[in-house]
Write a structure and sequence with these properties.
The complex is a heteropentamer of chains A (about 270), B (about 290), C (about 525), D (about 325) and E (about 325). Chain B is mostly helical and about 290 residues long. Helix content of chain B is about 70%, strand content about 0%. Chain B is elongated and about 80 Å long. The two termini of chain B are about 20 Å apart. In chain C, the strands form five sheets. In chain C, strands 1, 2, 3, 4, 16, 17 and 18 form a seven-stranded mixed β-sheet that branches. In chain C, strands 12-13-14-5-15 form a five-stranded mixed β-sheet. Chain C has about 525 residues and is α+β, with helices and mostly antiparallel strands. The chains are: A alpha/beta (about 270), B mainly alpha (about 290), C alpha+beta (about 525), D mainly alpha (about 325), E alpha/beta (about 325). Chain B: This is Peptide ABC transporter permease.
């Protein structure tokens, strides 16, 4: 069985729109990135800010078109699929974004937010929709469901919102999930919950995931494999443990030392 | 960043109740609306009726009295009735023009901002062209061209005013379209139409509503100006026209009761809308909130 | 149902009187006419006539009335302004009613065709004896009163104000009021500031007397350019640049030029200049002066100061209209003008008139100073003609003392206000211009004389005068074109401004009209 | 920078051309043609035909349009039907009068608006804030012509402090043309219309400035400036206002368009011999070429102001680079 | 050096009041780096602003004392306070991206600080700012740049250079690196530390990143719901954190242990602060809650030298630390 998702030599150039980036040549956000992800795997993508992590995620979701290269999903080239297949693709690949508040339409209730993908994909029966929404909310461990169903985003905490964002992403039973820094905006005290949840989804539904982060510590917690992106290129890739324990690329090494860590012996070395 | 919240309805009500100016604005506006709707019942005379005293003499230039609260014109027309019917004209011109303008402006702004690219460029160049046209002269010429009628005044106002709305909505759409919840919608598989109608439109609506209020005012003002120049609809009484007739017949420095009421009516109506919009603005743009 | 109570079924009656539209003035163009026509139409509706009143932009209306191809209108209101040359009855009797001009584009807008009338109106043109001519004009007026192709609605009283602290009473003239040809030269300053300031709402359009076509141009240019003859305040022709003249016969007139006159640039005024001016004007002018020049066959210089005009036919208005209108141009300047002299801006006009041009700031003001070499005495140092946006501003200027007098008549409402100003006095004179209702006789229902007479009886002349004009004017009447102010030519016996709707019904009934059960007017059956 | 200006300029020219086209066709559709003005019972039909021919009115509208475009490229705006002179010559003085009034009232509106807006944002919620916003909104709600008439009545007619109309006293003898527009006498005439117009437009910059200022005052760099221990005045003028000015400038350029058009009313009431006055007259007289040119001049002016505002903007905001 | 006594701050809102800082007392000594951690919205920034007296107009310091070298800042006139800001008290804001005025050159923004607080001649001032930005490894040609021409890290370094230029005795850094990359963050903290040590000034370091604080500061203050929950020296905190919230925070931080221990989540939401609470601020989320916690407010009590905790059950801290490792413990409160 081949990989579920395959990135083939993806290059992405943004036309320059920033004054200082020089004329003519665009910003090269990604250069020749290839990556394949097996079904059921969680792969982590780390890298410095601006290294192209989000861009990669957006290319997978067809929110951006790669300048070169293409994305293969379940054996199909996503940039050439038919309209119908594209709609199917929208069910199969989902995304969770960094800022949970910003990804919710401010005037949609929780129910609307989660029911929206169902409606888009042709669910008509009210009762069915309701059932599915409740079920999904339960899956993301928001209970009692009734408490949340009629709330607006600003009436919820960040952690709750992120759960709802995940609920929205999984309500269509996708096969692949891109999570772009889903916890970086959240307080430490509630981060773990979201990470647990993602892990759980992976376990129970074999949901394949691309987990994007700049924070090595959460990656190590969640991911099977780890890819390090540096200036638009994948400089290192391998099983998480291996990469963390013996980083090969200087950037990975620098990254590792830069992470603020509790002093190992738990006594201060100030 | 402007955000729409369902709760803002309550917030708006609360704001208005708390802000004495907005409250005054609301009461005034409601008053004007009532006057406009029930003009037929409220006006004691027809706007153009020439009123004669019992001895058959025409009541020329009567100063205000109980019978004629705003006095009469030089040929015995009841100014109170004229001002009341003028209210109806002002309100209808204002609101009809504003609805038209807002509709067109929002459509253009939405399409331009959402699709971007060449569509945006073309639409925005058209907006530029319309921005280069001086407003009142255009209305004057167009109205003269199409015959002075109230509908043509509305049309002329609308033909130009949408430029502002389109521009503002477009920039609003641009910021909203960049917001992650639009991306989230795309990811969920929503099409262009759905995104525009269900996601972007509600978010720009408050701004559109705000702009609409300004258009109401500018339309009323423009109609008054055009009518004051004598280019308005001669068969529809309006505040501007009352002042025009006064000026034309040379009574502007003597018959104060003829000059003051329509002018004050314009001031009050526009002011009431301004006061309301200010409260509204504070709700949709919370930073403006007075911190007391 | 008829008044006598006889039941006549509707279908036995004649056809419904055709509905018609009156093209009238917009309130801005003429508020009084606009309101008056509104009132009149109400009266007509009571008479059972289906009438629509349509205010129409002046230009569009003129376009329609004088359209070169067809006469597409039912009735209209319009006015003639009281220019001085219109004191001569020719225009009001011949030009606008003679049947030869009734075709498309012609000036006979009502389409009056009446042989007897044609004869009188034509003959008066050629009658050089004023008394005899007057008889003819009187006859013509009687026919007009009967035929009612037009109903005069009213004529204004010209009221002007002046600052009596700065100037002695200013001379007024019928038709022109205070800002007439004589006023600037005759005004007597009472203070040391001898500059006369005149306000007006109309700027002149050009300084070129050939291209000039509006009264507003002429009122100024005639002070710079002298003319052979002028009409005095009593409307009699008096010598101006001409020392005298002599009617040799019906077709020959000799004019004797006043000696020792100079242009403002110091060059002498010669008979050559006069001949040149008339010929030059004839050649180029395409405005209304043309009509006055047409009868001239040739101009002969008899030596010395004598100029002889040969006419193609006897032309009664020659002295009062032609000689009083044509400006004397300096030949040495105008013969050098290249290209079409109509396009010549003439930014520094040189004439031989009482005032010397100083400057003109378009839209703002014109300044002229006294010509010290002028043959008549002038009391002021000069005058400034100042342009304002609207009458209101003129009144304010009078009030603040910014101007001493003004060119356009005061609107009714301003008269009282002006009189209340301490330093202001007013002068009233009658106008010879008038506003009228014109009926297109070519079309039903106006093709019936009785109908027209009846209409004339439904006009409330009193209300128009008392309310709309606030008393400042004179009443109109059926067929009234030569106004009472034009005392010599006006036939007081001809016209009766009567408001009597009942009589109107009687006339209609007598003429076979009837009313149906709904009160609508039905045409006579024949 | 230069290429940016050139580019904007060319863009403006194209816009102007479109505006010109729009205006051209608009005027051709007017009922009643200009020859109506010439009609007099005594004028010959031939004379009228001649005029029609002279102005090419007998040709098809498309060929008229072509001629119009050609002339435009030659900078020939045509002859006024009414004045029989080049329209540009007729309008040149008026243009100046309009521009001066526009600028002076914009200076008043923007001067008071920008500083006042900054001040009331600084003291928002205070009586001062309430007073100024209400004051500005009252004047924004009152038609200029109405306020103008009242002002004339009070300050000119009753109190006699200022002239009631026109741009110079009658008989004002200018020593040179500069004197015509910059004398005390002229300034006295300018004062009342300027104030009335300025007051009307005051609300726009005032409230816009107030709002953006409030936004700016919430920005982190203002907090930083405070934390640096800078004086309030320096924070207000040096840090906050400079930034708040940016959107106000942009809005100002767009706003000129409606302001310029709205000035028509003031010119009318104050007998100010400007473009607006002339344009109303021209429209009434069906003098297309003149109205057209007036329109184009206004449009041109608006476009110029837009380019100008862009340049100022770029000057004020270093983040803008010319592309 | 800096001593805060019984500080209360509240915000007036449209229709209620938020008691954001309650009964807060703390101390920083010269040369000391004190880390202030706490959840978003617990009042960290408010405290920083209160120290600078830069609170928004609707905030009220209802009581308390802020003593800087024995002088009560709250008693100073506005003008006196202004003179202290920037000179004696430096403030490094969270968001360097926006803390520099976009329309002025870097040089002007640096130099105005000198002009404001000193009477330095221009030449000297230029020298000073040059030296200042050299000290944070930025080339002096950037002095002529506008902020948008610099990267976020550079801007943050410039701000550090700027605020430390006048050698303040107290530095308040409000999450100075949150918006930055880890590598950049490391670099900047290094700079900050060097300079602070050189100046021997006190540093109040605000952050929500426990790992960062633990490796950077001498002492720590854990704040929750406007109150101090625990304060102690860092080694005490790492070894014997005693407040359930502190403990929870530790086990929720992935950096705390890379050994695959399950991370915990503190369920629930932070308190709303609109009412003065009766009991412990944390009781709603605390897995070890008792009735007493709900009704009686625990006092901040000293349990060891320099170690204070606001919990009724400090004696059971040992058990708390053990049980808190387990996810199940925290699940109890869902
Ligand atoms: N729409 C765009 N237009 C132009 N350039 C862009 C656009 N989006 C991103 N970039 C540029 O592409 C590069 C990669 O951006 P991207 O957002 O993918 O980085 P990232 O790794 O997700 O960073 P972060 O950790 O800050 O989210 C950056 O240099 C960015 O400035
Ligand atoms: N001006 C204000 N008016 C009313 N409430 C405010 C104001 N500023 C802050 N608050 C409230 O005070 C509380 C504490 O805010 P503060 O900014 O001090 O938190 P913080 O700990 O710095 O949070 P973060 O980690 O998100 O920066 C929050 O609940 C906030 O909503
Ligand atoms: Mg990213
Ligand atoms: Mg904070």
């Amino acid at each position: 069985m081949g990989p579920l998702l395959e990135l083939k030599q993806i290059t992405k150039q943004y036309p320059t729109s920033f004054p200082l980036r020089g004329k003519g040549k665009g910003v090269e956000a990604l250069r020749d990135v290839s990556l394949s992800i097996k079904e059921g795997e969680i792969i982590g993508l780390v890298g410095q800010s601006g290294s192209g992590k989000s861009t990669l995620g957006e290319i997978i979701l067809q929110l951006e078109k790669p300048t070169e290269g293409h994305v293969m999903f379940a054996g199909k080239n996503l940039s050439t699929v038919s309209k119908k297949a594209r709609k199917q693709m929208r069910r199969d690949i989902q995304m969770v974004f960094q800022d949970p508040y910003e990804t919710m339409h401010p005037s949609f209730t929780v129910f609307d937010t989660i029911a929206e993908p169902l409606r888009i994909h042709g669910w008509r029966q009210k009762e069915q929709i309701r059932k599915k929404v409740y079920e999904t909310l339960a899956q993301v461990e928001l209970s009692p469901v009734e408490d949340y169903i009629n709330r607006f985003p600003h009436e919820l905490s960040g952690g709750q919102l992120q759960r709802i964002a995940i609920a929205r992403a999984i309500v269509l039973n996708p096969r692949f999930l891109v999570a772009d820094e889903p916890v970086s905006m959240l307080d430490v005290s509630i981060r773990a919950g979201i990470l647990h949840l993602l892990k759980q989804l992976n376990d129970t539904f074999k949901l394949t995931m691309l987990y994007i982060s700049h924070d090595l510590s959460t990656v190590s917690y969640l991911c099977d494999r780890l890819a390090v992106l540096y200036k638009g290129e994948i400089v290192e890739i391998g099983p998480t443990k291996k990469v963390l324990e013996s980083p090969q690329h200087p950037y990975t090494q620098a990254l590792l030392t830069a992470i603020p860590m509790f002093p190992h012996n738990r006594s201060v070395i100030v | 960043m402007i955000t729409v919240r369902k709760a803002s309805k309550n917030q708006l009500v609360r704001r208005i109740l708390k802000d004495p100016f907005a409250l005054i604005g609301l009461i005034l506006l409601l008053l004007f609306l009532i006057v406009a709707i029930f003009a037929n019942f409220l006006a004691p005379y027809d706007a153009y009726e020439i009123i004669r005293a019992e001895n058959g003499e025409i009541k020329k230039l009567y100063t205000p009295s109980i019978e004629h609260p705003f006095g009469t014109t030089n040929i015995g027309r009841d100014l109170f009735s004229q001002v009341i019917f003028g209210t109806r004209t002002a309100i209808s011109v204002g609101f009809i023009a504003a609805l038209l303008v807002t509709f067109v402006g929002v459509m253009v702004g939405l399409i331009s901002g959402y699709f971007g690219g060449i569509t945006d460029i073309i639409l925005m160049r058209i907006v530029d062209v319309f921005y280069a046209i001086p407003f009142i002269p255009f209305v004057i010429v167009l109205v003269a061209l199409l015959k002075p009628s109230i509908w043509n005044v509305i049309l002329a106002i609308s033909l130009l005013s949408w430029r502002t709305v389109a521009r503002i909505i477009r920039s609003q759409v641009l910021t909203i379209a960049k917001r992650p919840f639009i991306k989230a919608a795309i990811v969920s598989g929503a099409g262009h139409l759905r995104i525009m109608v269900r996601y972007i439109l509600p978010s720009v609506l408050p701004i559109a509503l705000l702009e609409m209020a300004f258009i109401v005012n500018s339309a009323i003002m423009t109609e008054a100006s055009v009518s004051f120049l004598g280019l308005g609809d001669p068969n529809v009484i309006s505040w501007g026209q009352i002042l025009h007739t006064n000026f034309l017949t040379g009574h502007s420095q003597t018959a104060w009761w003829w000059v003051a009421p329509p002018g004050i009516a314009i001031v009050l109506l526009l002011l009431s809308i301004f006061f309301l919009t200010r409260s509204f603005e504070e709700v949709i743009h919370p930073r403006l909130k007075r911190r007391s | 149902s008829s008044e006598k109570g006889e039941k006549v079924a509707d279908d036995e009656l004649g056809e419904l009187a055709p509905s018609f539209t009156v093209l009238t003035a917009t309130p801005e163009e003429n508020y009084i006419t606009y309101e008056a026509m509104k009132m009149i139409s109400e009266e007509w509706k009571k008479l059972g006539v289906d009438v629509t009143v349509q205010p129409m932009d002046f230009h569009a209306k003129v376009d329609r009335l004088w359209a070169p191809d067809e006469r597409d209108y039912d009735a209209f209101t319009i006015g003639y302004s009281g220019r001085v040359e219109r004191l001569d009855p020719d225009m009001f009797t011949y030009t606008i009613f003679h049947s030869s001009l009734a075709g498309p584009g012609g000036s006979n807008t009502t389409g009056l065709v009446n042989e007897e009338y044609d004869k009188y109106s034509k003959d008066q043109r050629h009658e050089m004896d004023p008394e005899k001519r007057r008889d003819l004009v009187f006859k013509a007026q009687e026919i007009l009163a009967d035929e009612v192709p037009v109903v005069s609605l009213y004529s204004n009283t010209l009221v002007h104000a002046y600052n009596h602290e700065r100037f002695n009473e200013l001379p007024a003239m019928a038709g022109e009021g205070v800002f007439n040809e004589w006023m600037p030269t005759e005004a007597e300053p009472l203070t040391d500031d001898k500059w006369l300031k005149i306000g007006g709402i109309q700027d002149l359009d050009t300084l070129n007397p050939i291209a000039a076509k509006s009264v507003f141009d002429w009122r100024q240019l005639r002070q710079i350019y002298d003319k052979l003859v002028r009409l005095n305040p009593q409307i009699e022709p008096v010598p101006s640049a001409a020392a005298n003249w002599e009617v040799v016969n019906d077709k020959t007139i000799d004019v004797f030029l006043r000696p020792n006159m100079t242009f403002h640039d110091g060059k002498p005024v010669t008979v050559e200049d006069v001949k040149f001016s008339y010929e030059f004007m004839d050649k180029w002018n395409d405005g209304y002066l043309q009509a006055f020049l047409e009868p001239i066959e040739s101009i002969e210089l008899l030596g010395g100061e004598t100029i002889r005009f040969h006419l193609t036919e006897a032309y009664a208005p020659f002295i009062t209209a032609t000689l009083t209108q044509i400006p004397i141009l300096p030949k040495h300047i105008w013969e050098k003008v290249e290209g079409n002299p109509l396009d010549f801006a003439n930014l520094e006009p040189i004439g031989s008139g009482p005032f010397v041009f100083e400057y003109w700031r378009r839209g703002e003001e014109l300044k002229v100073s006294r010509n010290p070499d002028y043959y008549n005495n002038i009391n002021v140092d000069g005058y400034i003609y100042r342009v304002y946006g609207q009458p209101e501003a003129v009144l304010s200027a009078l009030r603040t003392g910014e101007i001493d007098t003004h060119a356009d008549r005061l609107i009714s409402a301003h008269i009282q206000q002006a009189e209340n100003i301490e330093h202001i006095s007013t002068i009233e004179v009658a106008d010879i211009g008038f506003e009228y209702l014109g009926l297109n006789l070519r079309r039903a229902p106006f093709d019936n004389e009785a109908f027209r007479q009846a209409l004339a009886l439904t006009i409330d002349y009193d209300t128009i005068l008392d309310v709309y004009l606030e008393g400042y004017g004179t009443k109109g009447g059926p067929g009234l074109v030569i106004q009472p102010a034009n005392e010599f030519w006006h036939n007081p016996a001809a016209h009766q401004p009567i408001f009597d709707p009942k009589k109107a019904r009687d006339i209609l009934r007598e003429a076979g009209y009837n009313w149906d059960s709904e009160g609508k007017l039905r045409l006579p059956v024949n | 920078m230069v290429s940016f200006i050139v580019k904007r300029f060319i863009q403006s020219l194209i816009t102007l051309l479109v505006v010109a086209t729009l205006i051209f066709f608009m005027f051709r559709l007017m009922p009643g043609d200009m020859t109506a003005a010439l009609i007099d019972p005594s004028i010959a039909k031939e004379a009228r035909d001649q005029v029609i021919k002279q102005y090419g009115l007998d040709q098809s509208i498309w060929s008229q349009y072509l001629i119009f475009l050609q002339d435009l490229l030659k900078f020939d705006f045509g002859q006024s039907f009414y004045y029989k002179r080049s329209t540009l010559a007729v309008l040149s003085d008026k243009f100046l009068a309009t521009i001066i009034l526009m600028f002076s009232s914009m200076v008043v509106a923007y001067g008071f608006g920008v500083f006042g807006g900054a001040l009331i944002a600084w003291k928002r919620g205070s009586f001062l804030d309430l007073f100024w916003t209400t004051f500005a909104l009252i004047f924004r709600s009152a038609p200029t012509f109405w306020v103008g008439l009242l002002a004339i009545y009070v300050f000119s007619v009753t109190l006699g402090w200022l002239p009631h109309s026109g741009i110079r006293s009658p008989g004002y003898d200018a020593k040179h043309s500069f004197d015509l527009f910059f004398s005390v006498d002229f300034l006295r005439h300018l004062l009342l219309p300027t104030i009335v117009t300025g007051l009307f437009y005051l609300a726009t910059p005032l409230l816009l400035m107030r709002n953006t200022m409030i936004d700016v005052l919430g920005e982190d760099y203002i907090e930083m400036a405070r934390a640096k221990g800078l004086r309030e005045r320096r924070i207000l003028f040096h840090h906050a206002m400079r930034n708040a000015l940016l959107p106000v400038v942009t809005a100002g350029a767009l706003f000129i368009g409606s302001a310029l058009g709205g000035q028509v009313m003031i010119e009318y009431v104050f007998s100010w011999p400007g473009l607006g006055q002339e344009m109303i007259l021209a429209a009434q007289r069906h003098d297309y070429p003149l109205a057209q040119t007036a329109f184009l001049l206004m449009a041109g002016l608006i476009m110029m102001m837009n380019v100008f505002a862009d340049i100022i903007y770029a000057f004020l905001d270093p983040r803008i680079t010319y592309k | 050096m800096l001593q805060v006594n019984d500080l209360y701050v509240n915000y007036k809102r449209d229709n209620n009041k938020a008691y954001v800082i309650q009964n807060l007392s703390m101390k920083i000594r010269r040369g000391e780096r004190l880390g202030l951690v706490g959840e978003s919205g617990c009042g960290k920034t408010t405290l920083a602003r209160a120290l600078l007296r830069l609170l928004s107009p609707n905030a009220v310091i209802s009581s308390g004392q802020i003593l800087l070298d024995g002088e009560d800042l709250l008693a100073l006139s506005k003008e006196q306070m202004r003179k202290k800001r920037g000179k004696e008290i430096a403030f490094i804001p969270q968001n360097a991206m926006n803390a520099l005025n976009p329309v002025h050159r870097i040089r002007d923004q640096l130099i105005e600080l000198l002009y404001e607080h000193t009477s330095m001649p221009k030449k000297k001032a230029l020298e000073t700012i040059r030296a200042a930005i050299h000290s944070v490894d930025i080339h002096e040609r950037h002095l002529n740049d506008y902020p948008h021409q610099l990267s976020g890290g550079m801007k943050q370094r410039i701000i550090i250079a700027m605020t430390l230029m006048l050698q303040p005795t107290l530095i308040i850094a409000d999450e100075p690196t949150t918006a930055l990359d880890v590598i950049v963050q490391q670099n900047i903290l290094h700079k900050l530390r060097t300079m602070q040590e050189a100046l021997n000034s006190a540093l109040l370091f605000i952050s929500h990143d426990l790992a960062l604080v633990s490796s950077f500061c001498h002492t720590i203050v854990v704040m929750y719901g406007g109150k101090i929950m625990e304060t102690c020296r860092m080694e005490q905190f790492l070894a014997r954190a005693s407040h359930p919230y502190s403990i929870g925070l530790q086990y929720a931080s992935p950096n705390f242990s890379m050994n695959g221990e399950a991370l915990i989540t503190i369920p629930g939401m932070p308190p709303k602060l609109t009412e003065l609470s009766k009991g412990c601020q944390f009781h709603e989320r605390c897995p070890f809650v008792s009735d007493k916690c709900v009704s009686v407010e625990p006092k901040l009590q000293q349990i060891a030298e320099g170690h204070k905790v606001a919990c009724h059950y400090v004696s059971e801290a040992q058990r708390f630390r053990r049980e808190a490792k387990e996810i199940a413990t925290w699940e109890r409160r869902r």
